Amino acid sequence: MKVKKNALKMLKEYLGGFGKIVTLGRLLAGGSALVAMVTYYEIWKIMDLAISGENLEKIPAMGRTAVGVMILSMLMYVLALMCTHVSAFHIQANMRNKLMKHILTLPLGVFDEEGSGKIRRVVNDSTGATETYVAHVLPDKAVAAATPLGLAVLMLAFDWRIGLICIIPIIIGFLFIAGMMGPKMQESMKYYQNAMETISSEGVEYIRGIPVVKTFGQTVFSFKRFGAAIDDFTSWAINYTKSMTKPMVRFMTAINSVFVALVAGAYFFSRNGVSPELVLNMMYYIIITPLLTVAMTKLAYSGEQEMTLVDAIERVDKILAIEPLNDNGSKLMPKDTTIELENVSYRYPNAKKDALSGVSLKIPAHSHVAFVGPSGGGKTTTAQLIARFFDVTGGSIKIGGLDIREIKQEELMKNVSFVFQDSHLLKRTIADNVRLSKPEASDEEVLYALKMAQCTDILEKLPEGINTVIGSKGTYLSGGECQRIAIARAFLKNAPIIILDEATAFADPDNEASVQKAFEELAKDKTLVMIAHRLSTVSNADNIFVLENGKVTESGNHKELMEKGGKYSTMYAEYEKSVKWKVVA
Hints:
This protein is an alpha/beta fold and 585 residues long. Helix content is 62%, strand content 9%. The N and C termini lie far apart (75 Å).
């Protein structure tokens, strides 16, 4: 039997000392609803005097009492909201702090596997769901629970027969909806959130690919996964809505049929004549019955909102459950920048075969090597494993004679710089983007790094220089210019090991010359690992490793590999053909 999860219990670890304040807020909200019942009682007394025509001079005083009690009820509710909002912000801050601290300890490869869109949605939306639930749903739920209770007492007190007639349709309505509020709806909420995460993640990838889509005149369906995510959600949403139609129609019909029951009751009780008391009670019940309907509707929807919260917390817990990189606190330091891979294997989660299998190679300190080969051969995976984006599933990787798992992550990151194929710059100033690798760097250091990265021409055309904001509401740079800013970041860090992953992919011919010159400066006295499809950029490497199907099939310098007549020579011949290719009339 599946145990129903309590949302507040799941939030307990994030409440801190605010648990009592949340309870106080709920009590004040429920109390405000009960205090408001006094107003409805005063209204009944005013109607009684008005119908009887006696003691009419008392009506103004009763009116003031009703207004005063309603103001008191409103103040109590406002105070309740203050309590729940303060607590909600505290819970959300605690959750986000815990989540972000944990995310900072995760292997960088997790962000490729999970997708930046999914993680962003958990951090923003899932934690935001806790704020909405605690700040708004909890007090509203307390009001929705207390209001029917108070109204039921009033209804049964004045005329239990008419009161019972009003309550029965509400009970019937909840019996209709009870079947919806079970494990099936919880699974539906989970599917909904999964679909939103998938659409968010695939949407990010689609937006990044818009230049390609526009260039080739394609549509959203050229990105099959994004199109499939939208189609799947559309199909699910339609089917889910259809499955909920009958229960919701029955529920809404039942709770809104109170007036029909009142009319039938009035007809039945007036068979022997219409008394002033019957007129009074019927008029009174007609006035307050809509309050009961509204309260019960809110109470019904709060169940769905609680399911959404439970699912949101489970998603946060799923991120927190990802194992961080094991940091044993070792103070051992690599003796140099020699890189050795010994029988390394790696398999991505849920993959059917290894991305790398039995890879062994050695990169001497201060040497320049290249990884080449067909797409999917394992080039990027090998480079990412060297930077410990994730841990190997077999074998070991050593830097300076030390297994990288024995080097503190912070120390490893000081020794490795990674320039990606797609360099992401923040919507900050150029200086801020360069300083990401060394936050304490002075403006002079930043300017020197930009100069070494061949960025002088970029700064010359920008009136604000290094203080120019990049991106939204700022200056947009070309792909090659962004790449050089990223290289400046690596210059500033000055790590002894440099990994370049297709770093000239977005450079035009003019920019490529500047980027290559920047690389030459950056690689001086460094251990350099390059991943490239443009084989002309790696022909001067000390050693070239050809990776196919997760294995190293060839290695040697350019001359040696060309003489072997193997895969590399074939690839180089094809590359030269592509360079000479031209459109002719």
